[in-house]
TrEMBL record, chains A, B, C, D, E:
<dbReference type="GO" id="GO:0005254">
    <property type="term" value="F:chloride channel activity"/>
</dbReference>
<feature type="transmembrane region" description="Helical">
    <location>
        <begin position="224"/>
        <end position="254"/>
    </location>
</feature>
<keyword id="KW-1003">Cell membrane</keyword>
<keyword id="KW-0812">Transmembrane</keyword>
<dbReference type="Pfam" id="PF25539">
    <property type="entry name" value="Bestrophin_2"/>
</dbReference>
<keyword id="KW-0472">Membrane</keyword>
<feature type="transmembrane region" description="Helical">
    <location>
        <begin position="25"/>
        <end position="46"/>
    </location>
</feature>
<feature type="transmembrane region" description="Helical">
    <location>
        <begin position="58"/>
        <end position="75"/>
    </location>
</feature>
<comment type="similarity">
    <text>Belongs to the anion channel-forming bestrophin (TC 1.A.46) family.</text>
</comment>
<keyword id="KW-0406">Ion transport</keyword>
<keyword id="KW-0813">Transport</keyword>
<dbReference type="GO" id="GO:0005886">
    <property type="term" value="C:plasma membrane"/>
</dbReference>
<dbReference type="InterPro" id="IPR044669">
    <property type="entry name" value="YneE/VCCN1/2-like"/>
</dbReference>
<protein>
    <recommendedName>
        <fullName>Bestrophin</fullName>
    </recommendedName>
</protein>
<keyword id="KW-1133">Transmembrane helix</keyword>
Length: 293, 293, 293, 293, 293
């Protein structure tokens, strides 16, 4: 994730950061420009299509559909953003629950109980780092795929690590209870935090392994493609060679929206915009150790 | 469900997957094209309607209504997507609760208690597979239909299987409690997971047996039909035979949105985009067995 | 509620179901058509307004406002749909809680305890049917009206039946507790389901007795009315008698949206699209009896 | 609040209720009409601006901005409606919790315990009426204002009444517990309802004392003002004196949306559309007394 | 935060408050006006571009993209508003939990227990003021930044103060429990409030340290910049020097939306529109002291 100052317009407009869609789309924008120039050249100098040709009227289609394509793309970006934000919320929740669990255990365990303290100092932050690793794995992304993946051997053989860590935490707390170190009322109080770990893991897995429906995604891409590919036909007649930058700019806007949506809909990848899970796991470690000391 | 790489534009644009709306709508798009060609032929060569005819102005209606139809369809798709995503969330919740219940029971039951362990190893994943089966059934879809369905005999006679499984789980846990194998505080801690099964089942049934209101659905279809059917009248005059691909493309866009919405609003069917419930039930089985071993 | 197959386009487009807005609005659409024909006749044949008249330019107003009216109506329908869906969710929640309560009581009560079993077999489904009846009553709709309603005598005198049933359930469970038939931990576990009945009833009452704000509703109707009434003035000049079907179709679209919103915003009435509360109460009865047997 | 029949179009369109925005905006609409007439008179008869003047092209600005202004206003209304509906939900929640608390206490307290019964019969509904009074007070609206308000003396000196009532309820329940009249499990069961009072009060205070951000509000008003004020310049040239009703109608639509938003964003005032808090407090009183008798 | 009367239009339109975007953007608007005048001068008097030039047709691009830019900006503002409102809700929740905790402790602690009372009188409001301070700190904003910040020394060394306060509260309550001053049932009842502090802190930190994705932000700024910069080319031909105020107004509207979004998306800064955290902390102090006395 990139932390930035949203009020610094100058940098935004004139620098080309690695995560800037303009930089990523540059080759495509160039390609579209050439395509558009070719169309314009053919229409204006080879075919010499007259100004009152029906072709010029194709604009009416683009106007009628401009609303659908705009809304679809804006909704697409917002749905992707919702997923990204939900992922961030789940990790925020992991932070909160790690802290709360540490604070509660700190007040329940005696100061002299070094063994349990050091166990929890290690195991609570371990959940976050194990989860970060789990979510980066390709096997997690493909967990719901019905096809076979012989190339990913660990998909079927390896254990589910976050579950194992959660098991260790809950087992230990239950042991504290059966040994009488914490009472039943205290066990009840710890329950929220204990079960939250697995809930958070499941929610992150859901975001990771369930992209938006295939039909939706494929339709959107076909729509953008045909929409932009047909723009030069009429624009070359009404705008001449000015159609080249105009079509390029329209393509930049539409493709950027789809590009941004693709990047942020899976907040657990390695993209520039993805959540800094390792940093968050470090912060959890720092705070849990601080609390339990 | 189809797992895919959202960044692979080339495949999206040039392949025609089974779940692609372009493939599904192909016959209809062809039909509309023929219809449009016939209208154009009649207007241009048979009736020879002059260019300044009032008919050409019908476009104004399509422009005025283009907002409504676009917004309606985009909202329709998004409402359908919300249902699909809610269904996915419910199943995610089932995954979480199955795992958490297994982890908790694992820590409460002694290692030697093989009988109970093997009972829960079987019954927890069974809920998921029974629910998957239940949601595929036609009788579930028609549960709220006020008409008689003599053709579906089991609608009124058969038992509600998920309820039976939930009953077995809760009964067994309660027995553990009355026999003193788990204490009251532990029973309270298990409660969330225990009651979640029936809540999840009910939520999935709700999505399954309650489509969007009939009036809304019928209005939308009539609207799309009339909108597209009247397009060629004015377009044939302003675009000539170019009206054929233009109208076909507009129809493709509008109908795709409705088509996608229809497919994903019931995430528990057998469509390509529907949730992989069997795969998820398998995963639950794998994890629960792993935890309770 | 009408259960239907959303993929059967043919039926949707060519049949005129009782709940179809086209059928309901037919007289109004006819009226608007006549009005529009009269305006067109006056402008074209009586006043003989020239083609370059300022009147033709009124279209600019309709274009500028087409976006507001579209968005307002689409949002209106979606807000109404949210209320309808919330009502459905509340009833889904009632189903879940009835089932869960029955399952839990089943596991807590001894098999031989026929008296309590038969009590709960009757009283749990009774809540649903009493609530259905309560929500159909005119007195519930007017519960927040500050005016006097002498014509509705029971408004002030009658008891609140759902409260009475909830009281009976909670009282009986509490008695089980004080008599030692269920323990404190079990009482705590039953609490969620016990208090949900009244929460659900309150939420349904809220939807029933609080329509969208009066000013909003009145503004929307005035806006549609003026918008459609002024359409023929300019359309008659640009479209001639074609203005009649065009205005009729625009009116059909706008009025349908408002009509649908009106129908579904109160999901507890007797409209075709309203929730099948009696059917749901029957289902609850069936399942609760099945569970407690 | 006004309870009405949403299907009675005739009344809506032809009557001018006190809460109708058309009535409230009438003087302003008249003012705008005069302004527009003056502009038209100047342009057409004094300055005699030719038809091909650049001024006529200003329309392009209004068209480009018509989307933004429409979306902003529709979103504004919907945000305001969300606040209104959230306020309603909080009061619905107060109704539910008052009922549930009464039902639970009824089942826990002995029939002969007249003292406690009559205490709760009074104090539970008292919360609702004290809250209604609290939310009407100007001091509640200004609770977060950082400026001094010497004219509102009670702002800093008076006690927070709802807190005092909540304190009395919780204190009494706690006393019942310490005296052994209710057991620990029953105390736990009552907790949800007990803490909900203060949560509801806080949520209502939040809606009351936090309007939408100042910058947003001021921008919207400046935008509407400039947008409408510049409309007549181009419209007078294309529409002649017809610009007067056209501009007036556009103003009516835009200003109505802002007007409605202003009214409903604070649901706890004394406007026609505001929540009938006193009626609701009465209903709570009626039901609580009915339950506890 | 500025508390204002939303119905006072006159003040809104004619005063220029410090938080008014018109005042903030004034220099930029002036700059754009000069730029636009220069373009107009060049096109009209230096290059003498003819009226039928292709340049005039660039407007078609602005029209096609006007939907996207409008929707993007309105959604942007609404997303920012959601963050602002969520921040407000979290602080409202802090108010509620502080009050509820104080009320509960008041009823559980004896009147004579001055020591504990005075401890909680100090420590509960202290959480709010420590949190306010924590959220103002630059180190909180950069907590997730993966870059090194040597200039912010306390980023890595200082303790997390809100955690320390939460620790003190929970520790003390736990001590009351182990000393038998409050019973287990009462401990369970206090749990919600106790764990809410850390949850609220985490949620506020999330809003503070996670701006909307960088790519989204940078794209939006580039888009607005290019959109406005290309407007004068075609407008100068169709509007002459009138293009200057028209472009300036369009820029004012678009930039205001982005400006407002930037301001309110971080509700915990020192901007005019930000939440009055210190005032809220004061109010919490006042009420907690009032309750516990």
């Amino acid at each position: 994730m990139i932390t930035y100052n949203p009020k610094d317009w100058f940098t935004f407009i004139f620098r080309f950061h690695k995560a800037d869609t303009l930089r990523k789309l540059a080759p495509l924008i160039f390609g579209i420009s050439v395509y558009c120039w070719v169309i314009a050249f053919l229409e204006l100098h080879v075919l010499k299509i007259p100004d009152n040709s029906h072709i010029k009227q194709i604009t009416v289609m683009h106007t009628l559909l401009s609303f659908v394509i705009s809304m679809l793309l804006v909704f697409r970006t917002n749905t992707a953003y919702d997923r990204w934000w939900e992922g961030r919320k789940q990790w925020g929740s992991l932070v909160n629950n790690s802290r709360n669990l540490a604070i509660k255990l700190h007040s329940m365990l005696g100061y002299e109980d070094a063994a349990h303290r050091s166990f929890f100092k290690k195991i609570i932050p371990m959940y976050a780092s194990v989860l970060a690793h789990h979510l980066h794995a390709e096997s997690t992304r493909l967990a719901l795929d019905e096809q076979e993946h012989p190339e990913l051997r660990e998909l079927n053989t390896s254990q589910h690590l976050p579950n194992q860590v959660a098991k260790l935490i809950i087992q230990r707390v239950n042991k504290l209870y059966t040994e009488g170190k914490i009472k039943g009322d205290q066990l009840i109080i710890l329950n929220n935090e204990l079960q939250s770990f697995t809930d958070i893991c499941g929610a992150c897995e859901r975001i990771k392994n369930t992209p938006i429906p295939y039909s939706y995604s494929v339709f959107l891409k076909k729509f953008i493609f045909f929409y932009v590919m047909t723009l030069p036909f009429s624009f070359a007649l009404s705008l001449g060679y000015l159609a080249v930058p105009v079509v390029a700019f329209i393509f930049y806007v539409l493709a950027s929206l789809e590009e941004i949506a693709e990047e942020i809909e899976d907040p657990f990848g390695g993209d520039e915009n993805d959540l800094p899970m390792n940093k968050m796991a470090q912060n959890i470690k720092k705070h849990v150790v601080e609390i339990l000391s």
